[in-house]
Structures are given as C-alpha cells and as structure tokens.
Backbone:
C-alpha cells in the first residue's frame, strides 16, 4: 500500500486529544475546502473510507433515508471491522473512539476528514494509502 507522509509542521497536521486518557494522537485533517464528504470510519480501527458514489447521492441533500442507503453498502474494513456512519477515529494509546460524529446526518456534509498516523484511506477512485506523520 502506498504511504503518504505529512510533516508535523504543516498547518493541517496536529494532535487529536483523547477524551478518555488525554493522550495525543498525531493526525492529518483534510481541508474544509476539500471534497472528502461523506466519509466513514471503521468501527474497529481508525481507517476511513470516502466514496465519490456516496458524494453524488448527498451533494444537494442529506437525510436519514440517504444515510441508510449509504450505510447498507459500506464495506468491511481490512481489519475485520466495518465502516459505519456513527464511528470516529480511535485513540492510539487507549483505543477509545474519539466522538467526532455527533450527528451522522450532518456529518454527511463534513469535508474535514481526520486521518490518524498509521490509518488507511480507502476510496472508490484511486488506490488506498496509509498516512504517516513525520516527526
């Protein structure tokens, strides 16, 4: 799998703070001007998927019906978990989910995809890649 490295000094690289253990997890966040919506995290690990086919469904609208339609087609992750609309990335220290998805319907239009160090990004366009934060 391709590895994409981000320098820690870049403005879109920072630390995600865990609400459980207060640990800091290095992460890259896509720009708010990106088209990385909708995106969904694995329920077991911090991998994330963004499919353009889902984006075409929610470009002009968002609803529970559209969320349900997309949810039914979300695949299993390579870790054995499954991508789901109500999941977030996990703390690299205690593995507790960081609750970034308060409202799954509103999250359908959230372009800011948080990818933690070591997590993989999957898409229906292009090859998957793993994010590495250089220290």
Residues:
């Amino acid at each position: 799998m391709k590895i994409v490295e981000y320098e820690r000094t870049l403005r879109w690289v920072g630390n995600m703070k865990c609400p459980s253990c207060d640990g800091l997890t290095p992460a890259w966040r896509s720009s708010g001007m990106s088209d990385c919506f909708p995106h969904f995290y694995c329920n077991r690990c911090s991998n994330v998927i963004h499919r353009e086919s889902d984006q075409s469904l929610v470009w002009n609208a968002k609803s529970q019906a559209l969320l349900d339609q997309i949810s039914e087609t979300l695949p299993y992750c390579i870790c054995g978990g499954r991508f789901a609309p109500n999941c977030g990335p996990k703390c690299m220290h205690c593995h507790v989910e960081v609750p970034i998805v308060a409202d799954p319907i509103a999250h359908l239009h959230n372009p800011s995809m948080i990818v933690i160090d070591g997590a993989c990004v999957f898409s229906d366009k292009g090859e998957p890649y793993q994010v590495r934060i250089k220290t």
In short: Helices lie at 52-58, 64-71, 104-107.
